[in-house]
């Protein structure tokens, strides 16, 4: 592998390279959608020092990448024959007593590498279900009287959009500044940033959809409802509206990662009621230093 070089992440252009690799492997059971990578990288500001990130390249093309969340978390996309090198780097840059990484239960090759390197599947960890559905035969969007669902209009909606997120995911580090950074990231499309407006004009529920145009798959990330407006069917309306918008933009499938463990059953029930079906699930592997 002497023709492979590695270098640290340098900014948004490198995130695009990471997304391109995620797109390339998606059809072979890839784990990471281009949308979640954009959301995760830009939803919070000032965290780059906590996130050592490395790219492996061959002839200028990214063939693997690793994103560390200090003190001991790893997200990576790599072929099985590069996984050992990725783990070597991960072990060097972290100082935590507990190391952890999460993959899909269908990634049996990576599971074998992790097991050989001393990682063990965590039996008590929370997990996510990968849920998906096609975009044919969508029902019409319905909202309670006085509520409307629409796409984000632009910068004037950012304060309300952020307020809704911070209420749904309290406490949250998302700010108006960081959300504008999300909006500047590829592949954000304002038409896919779907919100529910209350009778008083407040934005109270939302579904941010991201389209991978190559694979024609849209992902929901995130979905939420302000605490005082929950259990009114608003998130359902936002998600259904997002699916109509995704289809109009050329998507053939929608997917979402939803908690599958008993601690948080509501999201999976919501998506199930919208026709999503569970496929692979995440599994977390851990080891001590």
From TrEMBL:
Family matches, as InterPro entries: Acyl_CoA_acyltransferase (IPR016181), GNAT_dom (IPR000182)
N-acetyltransferase domain segment(s): 147-289
Domain of life: Bacteria
Pfam family, one: Acetyltransf_1
Key words, A-Z: Transferase
Molecular function (Gene Ontology), one example: acyltransferase activity, transferring groups other than amino-acyl groups
Protein name: GCN5-related N-acetyltransferase
Record organism: Planomonospora sphaerica
């Amino acid at each position: 592998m002497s023709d492979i070089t590695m270098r640290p992440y340098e900014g948004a252009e490198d995130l695009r390279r990471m997304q391109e690799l995620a797109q390339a492997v998606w059809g072979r059971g890839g784990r990471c959608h281009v949308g979640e990578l954009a959301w995760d990288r830009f939803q919070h500001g000032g965290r780059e020092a906590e996130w050592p990130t490395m790219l492996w390249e061959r002839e200028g093309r990214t063939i693997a990448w690793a994103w560390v969340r200090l003190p001991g978390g790893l997200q990576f996309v790599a072929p099985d024959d590069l996984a050992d090198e990725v783990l070597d780097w991960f072990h060097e840059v972290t100082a935590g007593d507990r190391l952890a990484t999460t993959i899909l239960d269908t990634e049996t090759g990576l599971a074998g590498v992790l097991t050989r390197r001393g990682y063990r599947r965590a039996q008590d960890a929370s997990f996510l279900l990968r849920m998906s559905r096609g975009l044919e035969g969508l029902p019409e969007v319905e909202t309670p009287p006085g509520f409307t669902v629409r796409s984000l209009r632009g910068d004037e909606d950012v304060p309300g959009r952020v307020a809704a997120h911070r209420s749904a995911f309290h406490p949250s580090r998302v700010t108006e500044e960081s959300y504008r950074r999300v909006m500047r990231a590829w592949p954000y499309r304002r038409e896919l940033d779907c919100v529910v407006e209350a009778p008083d004009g407040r934005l109270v529920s939302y579904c941010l959809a991201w389209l991978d145009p190559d694979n024609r798959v849209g992902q929901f990330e995130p979905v939420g409802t302000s605490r005082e407006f929950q259990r009114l069917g608003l998130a359902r309306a936002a998600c259904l509206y997002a699916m109509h918008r995704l289809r109009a933009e050329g998507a053939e499938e929608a997917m979402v990662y939803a908690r599958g463990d008993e601690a948080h059953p509501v999201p999976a029930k919501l998506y199930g009621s919208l026709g999503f079906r569970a496929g692979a699930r995440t599994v977390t592997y851990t080891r001590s230093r």
